[in-house]
UniProtKB/TrEMBL annotation:
The lineage of its organism: Bacteria, Pseudomonadati, Pseudomonadota, Gammaproteobacteria, Lysobacterales. Its EC number is 3.2.2.21. Pfam families: HhH-GPD. This is DNA-3-methyladenine glycosylase II. Coiled coil: none annotated.
Length: 224
């Protein structure tokens, strides 16, 4: 069974994309090289990362960080797992500011972890992208996009294209000078030429979409 190395050669990715898609290549040269993400080399805990992803959903970074801090204080740990989350009841989570839906999602995550249903970081190294997605999307509150972000920014998988991401779609539309962003299906077809570096293409599409927003009002993109 092949093992998947975390991260990829961004120089090779740049050269490949610039060669196979001249329109995207023009934007890439304008923006400049995007280097490897340092998170590709850092160990991380998938269960803890998923728990934090649940808590951060639909909240500003500051508000979510405050809630996470309260939960950590209540359970006496910075590690969000079935054993530590078991130290607090649902009422306690609500008192920390965790919504009812997120409480149910955390409980489902914890239950699945206790059953051994969540792949470890070591196990993920032997799984392809779709296998990881299939393993994680059954968790309440975890959708395909959330797993794709983990694949891209934490596992450093080189060939992930989040076709439902509005920023990626908007950037693709700008590259092609289209009046509207492509549909997810159209983007999937459009992105076939970017393989095996669709992750790197996505990083540029986000930058391209942000360039239009920044022309109106300054914004910052942060992928955690």
């Amino acid at each position: 069974m092949p093992r998947h190395v975390r991260g990829f050669d961004t120089d090779a990715a740049f050269a490949h994309l610039a060669r196979c898609d001249r329109r995207l290549g023009t934007w890439m040269r304008r923006i400049g090289p995007i280097g490897p993400d340092p998170r590709w080399r850092r160990r991380f805990d998938p269960v803890d990362a998923l728990a934090r992803a649940i808590l951060f959903q639909q909240l500003s970074g500051k508000a979510a960080s405050t809630i996470v801090g309260r939960v950590e204080a209540a359970i006496g740990s910075t590690r969000l797992h079935f054993d530590t989350l078991g130290r607090i009841d649902d009422a306690g989570l609500r008192a920390c500011g965790v919504s009812g839906n997120k409480t149910l999602a955390l409980r489902d995550l914890a239950l699945r972890e206790s059953r051994g249903e969540i792949p470890t970081l070591r196990q993920m190294a032997s799984l392809d992208n779709e296998a990881i997605i299939e393993a994680l999307v059954p968790i309440r509150g975890i959708g395909r996009w959330t797993v794709e972000m983990m694949l891209m920014f934490r596992l450093g998988r080189p060939d992930v294209l989040p076709i439902d991401d509005l920023g990626v779609r908007k950037g693709a539309g700008m590259v092609d000078k289209a009046e509207q962003a492509p549909t997810p299906k159209a983007l999937l077809e459009r992105g076939e030429r970017w393989g095996p570096y669709r992750t790197y293409a996505s990083l540029y599409l986000w930058r391209i979409a942000d360039s239009a927003s920044e022309a109106v009002t300054p914004t910052n993109r942060s992928q955690g």
